[in-house]
């Protein structure tokens, strides 16, 4: 190991941390994975957040501490209370959009590690029994080579537990909100895993929360099979 | 994807009918390539798609079974995407060997931990279970070569004509040549005869350049010069991606998808970022050319090593030491301006810089002012705007870069503050050029030669003042100035100046 070798930012590949201190020599694990410039482009979700979905609350689009989108979900008896809450880390801005595209579509698995600490904090904070990835269909999994949700759970230091499978369909990102909500159930419980669900508090992990419909469809399936509660953690909102 | 080795031939797992063991391709050492079966009825579409290329299986819109059939009949080969050798590895597409560019992921395709290359990831992931596919069968028949006639009526300057003759000679002998032409010498025209020569021999020609801007600028000029030749213009997201053309103009990045394709490769602006810093792009050039092909480098500013090799006679080169308009290159002046950064923090500029700028604004002479960092530019712009409200600034990430350059051309901006992004490729007819903080490391010898080369480009306004304002003279500044003066002397000696 070369103690004085430069480290490189995972996101932009620029060299970071030229300065070598005793801390950097002895505590290699605490090294910076993301340079200050990139860190600056990532915007944490801060301030007053929707209690349900974790977005930043905006005036005129809220009732109390819940946003209108979540009210719509919670006023619908079919979806009421299925997803206890969602916690997200960053604003889905143009910079993160590019990072996620590189991670998920170009398949740069290593990028998940850039968010390791934040993901760990959020998943631990959710106090769950199982960390469950949102599954890909077999075709999509082959195409991408890995499941981004599983990669995020591993980066958080967790053990992904696959409970769900997914039937192949059109990409979510090509659909409108109405399309997504009125979608037939695309998830199934993996038959061997039925027993592992009983009474468990489950955290679903995904890259992004857009309308929340993917996560709610998954939550619905898990709750119907005996999960005590289902919440979610996503990188972007 | 996993492959099995059956009778010395690779068989991808989805097509395997026997119980042979399968492995990721990087773990199979098979040098055997099937003999070409001339009786095989190959698919000409696959031939034009793949000839001279190296593509991932994902990039081929043909059924697996058909691809495999061509392989078994000796019309294509599967090569390992990642070459593993002991503890070290190499990406076969981009040539990267540095460990920091490699990472591992649990791969759903081969079921193992797969090593992948992050350097060329944006062109499709190459991992230790991916195969690079190239064509080994007969090449697509070239259209009758007589049609590749040059249709250009301009005349070459004496300097250009000499370089053009040398280029033709290098291309016909399949050798290497460096064309060292000053900024504004008219490099593109020098290539025409050589390109025509190669095309008429039935050769494929590629002009590679690091910058998309240059591809876009060269394409219409070459299409006009060779009106009956198909020209493919390749850059990230271009539509000619699958066009098999006798004349290809590509960014050096796009060369990564080519394999032993070209009889002549011309690399424009060898020294420009990122080619000079990026070994992988050097590798791309080597991969894309055929064995025994011609290689021509074009630049106004070869690096120190190349300059030395030229002067020592170790590298074949030709210079065009003067501009086509027969006026000498403006020689930069040095002006010490003290700690300008401190001044900027106090919202002002050094006195000599201010008076130089005011003088230009009063005289109505357009000016390009270079500064080292985006950060300092943000502070300098408001200071300059107090002198004239229409002063603008531009940098690489500026979304309105093109718009501002156009405004500058239309003389709507009296002074444009810029980072090194405008050091090359742009031509404004009648300007003066200043560099603030010329001592900064970003202003290398070649950057400064290029910057000085922005002045005096048009025949109607061949003079322009170039001033390097500095807080301590650097070697790069001195070398840049002496390079320019050397070219002027050579131009005068050869009778290329009036």
TrEMBL record, chain A:
Domain Phosphoribosyltransferase: 185-236
All residue ranges annotated as the Double zinc ribbon domain in the record: 5-71
InterPro entries linked: ComF/GntX_DNA_util-trans (IPR051910), DZR_2 (IPR044005), PRTase-like (IPR029057), PRTase_dom (IPR000836)
Record Pfam families: DZR_2 (PF18912), Pribosyltran (PF00156)
SUPFAM superfamilies assigned: PRTase-like (SSF53271)
One example GO MF annotation: glycosyltransferase activity
PANTHER family in the record: DNA UTILIZATION PROTEIN YHGH
Family stated for the protein in its record: Belongs to the ComF/GntX family.
Protein name as catalogued: Phosphoribosyltransferase
From TrEMBL, chain B:
GO biological process: DNA recombination; DNA replication initiation; double-strand break repair
PROSITE patterns, sorted: HELICASE_ATP_BIND_1, HELICASE_CTER
UniProt-listed SMART domains: DEXDc (SM00487), HELICc (SM00490)
InterPro entries xref list: Helicase/UvrB_N, Helicase_ATP-bd, Helicase_C-like, P-loop_NTPase
MF terms in GO: 3'-5' DNA helicase activity; ATP binding; DNA binding; hydrolase activity
Domain Helicase ATP-binding: 168-320
UniProt entry keywords in alphabetical sequence: ATP-binding, DNA-binding, Helicase, Hydrolase, Nucleotide-binding
Domain Helicase C-terminal: 349-498
tRNA-binding listed as a keyword: no
Superkingdom assignment: Bacteria
Name of the protein described by the UniProt record: Helicase
Organism this protein belongs to: Mesobacillus campisalis
């Amino acid at each position: 190991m070369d103690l004085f070798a430069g480290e490189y930012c995972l996101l932009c590949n620029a060299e970071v941390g030229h300065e070598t201190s005793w801390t950097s020599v002895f505590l290699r694990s605490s090294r910076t994975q993301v340079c200050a410039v990139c860190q600056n482009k990532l915007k944490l979700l801060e301030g007053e957040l929707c209690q349900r979905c974790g977005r930043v609350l905006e005036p005129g689009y809220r009732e109390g501490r819940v946003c209108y989108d979540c009210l719509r979900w919670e006023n619908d008896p079919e979806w009421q209370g299925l997803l206890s809450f969602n916690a997200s880390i960053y604003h889905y801005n143009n910079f993160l959009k590019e990072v996620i595209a590189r991670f998920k579509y170009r398949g740069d698995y290593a990028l998940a590690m850039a968010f390791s600490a934040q993901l760990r904090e959020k998943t631990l904070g959710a106090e769950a029994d199982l960390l469950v990835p949102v599954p890909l269909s077999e075709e999509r999994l082959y195409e991408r080579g890995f499941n981004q949700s599983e990669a995020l759970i591993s980066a958080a230091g967790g053990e992904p537990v696959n409970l769900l499978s997914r039937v192949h369909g059109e990409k979510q990102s090509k659909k409108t909100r109405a399309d997504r909500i009125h979608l037939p159930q695309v998830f199934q419980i993996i038959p061997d895993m039925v027993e592992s669900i009983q009474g468990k508090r489950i955290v679903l992990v995904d890259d992004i929360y857009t309308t929340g419909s993917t996560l709610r469809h998954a939550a619905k399936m898990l709750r119907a099979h005996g999960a005590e509660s289902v919440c979610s953690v996503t990188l972007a909102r | 994807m996993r492959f099995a080795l059956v009778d010395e031939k690779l068989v991808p797992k989805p097509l395997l009918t026997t119980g042979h063991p399968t492995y990721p391709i990087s773990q199979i050492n098979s040098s055997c390539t099937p003999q070409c079966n001339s009786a095989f009825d190959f698919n000409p579409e696959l031939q034009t798609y793949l000839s001279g290329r190296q593509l991932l299986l994902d990039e081929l819109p043909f059924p697996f079974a058909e691809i495999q059939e061509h392989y078994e009949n000796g019309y294509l080969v599967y090569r390992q995407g990642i070459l593993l050798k002991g503890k070290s590895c190499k990406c076969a597409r981009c040539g990267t060997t540095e460990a920091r560019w490699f990472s591992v992921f649990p791969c759903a395709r081969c079921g193992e931990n797969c090593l992948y290359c992050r350097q060329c990831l944006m062109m499709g992931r190459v991992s230790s279970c991916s195969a690079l596919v190239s064509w080994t069968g007969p090449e697509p028949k070239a259209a009758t070569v007589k049609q590749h006639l040059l249709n250009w009526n301009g005349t070459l300057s004496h300097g250009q004509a000499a370089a053009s003759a040398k280029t033709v000679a290098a291309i016909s002998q399949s050798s290497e040549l460096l064309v060292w032409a000053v900024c504004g010498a008219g490099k593109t025209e020098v290539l025409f005869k050589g390109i025509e020569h190669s095309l008429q021999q039935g050769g494929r020609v590629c002009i590679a350049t690091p910058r998309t801007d240059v591809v876009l600028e060269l394409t219409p000029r070459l299409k006009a010069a060779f009106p009956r030749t198909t020209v493919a213009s390749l850059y990230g997201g271009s539509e000619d991606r699958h066009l098999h053309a006798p004349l290809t103009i590509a960014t050096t990045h796009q060369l990564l998808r080519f394999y032993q394709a070209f009889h002549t490769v011309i690399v424009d602006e060898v020294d420009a970022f990122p080619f000079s810093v990026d070994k992988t792009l050097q590798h791309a050039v080597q991969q894309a050319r055929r064995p025994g092909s011609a290689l021509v480098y074009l630049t106004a500013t070869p690096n120190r090593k190349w300059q030395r090799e030229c002067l020592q006679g170790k590298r074949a080169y030709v210079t065009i030491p003067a501009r086509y308009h027969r006026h000498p290159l403006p020689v930069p002046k040095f002006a010490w301006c003290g700690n300008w950064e401190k001044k900027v923090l106090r919202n002002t500029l050094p006195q000599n810089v201010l008076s130089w700028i005011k003088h230009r604004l009063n005289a109505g002479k357009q000016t390009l002012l270079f500064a080292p960092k985006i950060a300092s530019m943000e502070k300098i712009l408001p200071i300059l705007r107090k002198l004239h409200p229409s002063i603008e600034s531009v940098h690489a990430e500026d979304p309105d870069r093109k718009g501002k350059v156009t405004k500058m051309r239309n003389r709507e901006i009296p002074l444009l503050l810029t980072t090194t992004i405008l050091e090359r490729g742009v031509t404004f007819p009648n300007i003066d050029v200043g560099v603030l903080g010329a001592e900064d490391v970003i202003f290398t010898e070649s950057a400064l030669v290029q910057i000085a080369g922005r002045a005096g480009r048009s025949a109607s306004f061949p003079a322009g003042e170039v001033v390097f304002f500095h807080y301590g003279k650097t070697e790069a500044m001195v070398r840049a100035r002496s390079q320019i003066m050397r070219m002027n002397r050579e131009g005068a000696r050869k009778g290329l100046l009036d």
